[in-house]
């Protein structure tokens, strides 16, 4: 491979004024195609084969249309109304204010007027729920589902709910004007003294995280690369390749919307991956090019050798990222699949631009590339073997005390990993919205009036088709008694019979909130009783609702982590055997990643779930999608750093250095590149902590922590320590396997025979034990 890439690098360098226009024409063509055929992106968060689908099927059969409200695309809206302190909603002035709110909503075009809206106070009165005698079982049974908090022992009649149907087809069709109109309709009631907040998808503001993070990342990247290269012009080359590679990948994704539905988050993930990898790979190749300029007799030869050696590592580093992200498809969730494929596409373009556009740009900038030089920084270039770098000092320290550094690294990660045993997953709900948002305030008001469980009501859909008519009432009474007997159940409303008489619906309100583990356990408990009811009565039922669906999603995603990691890690392990021609090096690379992931989960749980250090004022469960996306993204980057650092160590070993010398010299040449790449990625990911959304904050923190732990502790402490301890055995491979594996020559041994283009290198500093 190194020979082919060597020739490609020389060709691109020499024919720069052909390669650069070809890339320009390609970008223009892709842009024209995307603008011509692309369609709007759509977000479909449905997941197949969830247990809650049983209830949906029963609803569709006996309660046509009711299951639509549990569709992620449905447009829902609930006004939560609270009386001024010291008053009740049943007071005449407050009743009049709610009447005005109902009238305002009745005038909105976006409201479905097929079913007239009714003042919740009037609804409660018609149900007989405003009676002063509220302690009877009959009153509780009748008024549990009232839209007024008549069951509250304190602050009764102070909070009410007004569910409003909308005519908008999908939440993706909601415009800012629609959202503003729905919120502003309550201004009159607010002016009258009522607190009115709005929940549901009509109030959700679709904010795509990013933008600021990318700008911060680009700014930090530029500064880091100026330091890494010791020159200003060279620092802009990776930025150019990142823009071109990301632009090409984005336009291909947009063109793909013509043939399939692609979620909007795909371009965000692709941009994050594209920028990161393009800069990483450019750093690696340009750093090697700078070194080759010292030992080659022409810039063209230096470009060929840089692409032939560093470019080989880039190819396999890119393949590990592509494998990791494409592997998200095994989860079986469409939007995760498309996001993973979009990220894999961006990774592929990052590799392509590094191998073709990069050497062409090196040729175009010519002798101006490493100008103007930055004083002091340029003097201590890790590719200039006349100087001892900090990287070399650290490597020598590790080489002297490998057992100590190995144990210290493992113990540190182990301590950080300890809180991970308390990991609690959940999907972002109203309780995780920013505290100043109307959605969050609606959640708090509803909790105050109806209890926290009212924010996640369980819907129990019952199928009575196989139950004899004379036993149906008995079966429903028995099921209600069973549900009410659960310790974590607040109350149960129903049953509500279907028109055909063969179905019924219960609303079960838990004690705890939607993402609380007790609520998830309650869902499992309710489902676990179905078998006994089927045996005794022939009755079937299912549990759905937002809480049940969220619990199902959590279980499915959590259950997908092990197979995902095994498939991705297994494929990457085989690929790394090809790269390193070793068994132990790929194995330690994978085991090291497990350590860094455990520490990352532990730190994330400690800060975002348990609220340690006071960094988060509102601790929440960890978003369900974070673990599997974190694994996919950080695994790819971790293998990048493994390939960048350890291939240089293997190159030194293959060229005759002892195992310890190879580790030190490889560390000396690769540490600055890996450090620079990791700092850039940490900066990009950390910038997402500036977002208001807790999920975005936790995702940014976890990604930054994952890169920090993996790059600086696993790849730059634990792996070198192991290589120093294992010695020659680190590079052992069974002879039979060595014979059948293709020789891909990542180290560039075949380039050694091309001696006409090299000059004698300066002597390297020797390792002193």
UniProtKB/TrEMBL annotation:
It is a multi-pass membrane protein. Coiled coil: none annotated. It is found in: Cell membrane. It holds the Pfam family MMPL. Its main location: membrane. InterPro entries: MMPL_dom (IPR004869), Mycobact_MmpL (IPR050545), SSD (IPR000731). GO terms for cellular component: plasma membrane. Keywords: Cell membrane, Membrane, Transmembrane, Transmembrane helix. This is Putative drug exporter of the RND superfamily. It comes from Rhodococcus triatomae.
């Amino acid at each position: 491979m190194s020979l082919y890439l060597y020739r490609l690098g020389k060709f691109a360098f020499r024919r720069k004024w052909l390669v650069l226009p070809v890339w320009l024409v390609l970008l223009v063509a892709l842009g024209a195609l995307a603008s011509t055929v692309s369609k709007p992106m759509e977000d479909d968060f449905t997941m197949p084969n969830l247990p809650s689908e049983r209830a949906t099927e029963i609803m569709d059969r006996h309660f046509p249309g009711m299951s639509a409200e549990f569709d992620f695309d449905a447009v829902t809206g609930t006004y939560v109304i609270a009386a001024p302190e010291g008053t009740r909603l049943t007071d005449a002035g407050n009743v009049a204010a709610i009447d005005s709110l109902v009238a305002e909503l009745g005038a909105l075009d976006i409201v479905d007027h097929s079913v007239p809206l009714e003042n919740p106070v009037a609804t409660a009165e018609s149900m007989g729920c405003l009676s002063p005698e509220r302690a009877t079982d009959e009153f509780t049974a009748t008024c549990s589902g009232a839209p007024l908090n008549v069951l509250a022992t304190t602050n009764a009649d102070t909070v009410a709910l007004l569910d409003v149907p909308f005519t908008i087809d999908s939440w993706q069709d909601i415009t800012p004007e629609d959202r503003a109109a729905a919120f502003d309709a309550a201004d009159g009631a607010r002016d009258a003294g009522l607190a009115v907040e709005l929940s549901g998808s009509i109030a959700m503001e679709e904010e795509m995280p990013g933008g600021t993070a990318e700008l911060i990342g680009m700014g930090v990247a530029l500064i880091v690369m100026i330091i890494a290269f010791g020159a200003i012009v060279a620092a802009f080359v990776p930025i150019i390749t990142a823009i071109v590679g990301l632009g090409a990948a984005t336009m291909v994704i947009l063109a793909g919307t013509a043939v399939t539905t692609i979620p909007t988050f795909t371009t965000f993930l692709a941009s994050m991956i594209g920028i990161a990898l393009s800069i990483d790979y450019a750093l690696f190749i340009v750093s090697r090019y700078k070194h080759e300029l010292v030992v080659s007799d022409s810039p063209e030869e230096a470009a060929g050798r840089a692409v032939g050696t560093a470019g080989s590592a880039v190819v396999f580093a890119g393949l590990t990222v592509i494998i990791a992200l494409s592997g998200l498809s095994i989860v079986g969730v469409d939007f995760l699949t498309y996001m993973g494929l979009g990220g894999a596409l961006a990774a592929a373009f990052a590799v392509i631009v590094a191998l073709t556009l990069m050497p062409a740009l090196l040729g175009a900038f010519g002798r101006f590339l490493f100008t103007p030089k930055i004083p002091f920084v340029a003097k201590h270039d890790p590719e200039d073997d006349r100087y001892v770098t900090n990287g070399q000092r650290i490597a020598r320290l590790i080489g002297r005390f490998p057992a100590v550094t190995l144990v210290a690294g493992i113990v540190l990660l182990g301590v950080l990993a300890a809180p991970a045993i308390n990991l609690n997953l959940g999907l972002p709900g109203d309780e995780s919205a920013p505290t100043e948002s109307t959605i969050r305030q609606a959640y708090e008001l509803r909790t105050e009036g109806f209890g926290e469980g009212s924010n996640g009501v369980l819907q129990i859909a019952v199928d009575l088709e196989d139950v004899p008519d004379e036993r149906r009432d008995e079966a429903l009474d028995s099921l209600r008694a069973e549900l009410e007997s659960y310790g974590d159940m607040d109350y149960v409303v129903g049953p509500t019979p279907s028109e055909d008489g063969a179905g019924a619906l219960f609303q079960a309100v838990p004690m705890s909130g939607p993402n609380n583990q007790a609520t998830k356990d309650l869902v499992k408990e309710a489902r676990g009783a179905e078998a006994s009811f089927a045996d005794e009565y022939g009755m079937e039922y299912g549990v759905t609702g937002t809480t049940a669906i969220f619990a199902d999603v959590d279980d499915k995603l959590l259950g997908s982590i092990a197979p995902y990691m095994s498939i991705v890690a297994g494929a990457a392990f085989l690929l790394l055997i090809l790269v390193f021609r070793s068994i132990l090096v790929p194995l330690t690379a994978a085991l090291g990643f497990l350590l860094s992931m455990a520490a990352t989960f532990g730190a994330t749980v400690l800060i975002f779930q348990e609220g340690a250090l006071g960094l988060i004022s509102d601790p929440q469960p960890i978003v369900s999608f974070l673990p599997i996306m974190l694994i996919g993204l950080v695994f790819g980057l971790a293998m990048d750093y493994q390939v960048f650092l350890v291939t240089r160590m293997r190159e030194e070993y293959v060229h005759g250095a002892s195992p310890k010398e190879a580790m030190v010299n490889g560390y000396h040449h690769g540490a600055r590149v890996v450090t620079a790449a990791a700092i850039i990625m940490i900066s990009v990911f950390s910038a997402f902590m500036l977002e208001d959304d807790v999920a975005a904050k936790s995702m940014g923190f976890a990604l930054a922590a994952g890169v920090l732990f993996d790059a600086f502790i696993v790849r730059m402490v634990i792996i070198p320590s192991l290589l120093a301890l294992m010695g020659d055995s680190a590079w052992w491979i069974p002879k039979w396997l060595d014979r059948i594996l293709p020789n891909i020559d990542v180290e560039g041994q075949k380039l050694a025979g091309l001696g006409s283009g090299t000059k004698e290198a300066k002597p390297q500093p020797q390792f002193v034990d």
